[in-house]
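pinned: reference chain
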Amino acid sequence: MLTEEDARQLVLAEIHDVRNHVTCDLQILRMDALPFGWIFYWGAVWDGRNRQRPRLGGNGPFLVDRENERLIRTATSVPIARQIADYERRLRREAHARNTAAKQAAQQP
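pinned: its structure tokens
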């Protein structure tokens, strides 16, 4: 099981990989707790020279699942609330499949 700091380190490692392809500094801008883990929003650092933060393409937030240690990069073209709901449905389906498999195993002689 991941801690919040473990999750942050996973996201920072992903952001580090992106840094090799852009000319601006990147950082985690915000983190929100979710029932299954966290969502990390990230982007370019405001450098003070411009009045706004440089815009990046493809910098959708990361979902991090504390239980199964998944790091999911979200799409920027789909609302994040929908992606969170989709992931929560996925978790329910996986839990149902595990429960069904456990019941079937328990019924085997």
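why pinned: Residues 4-77 form one domain. The mean pLDDT is 89.
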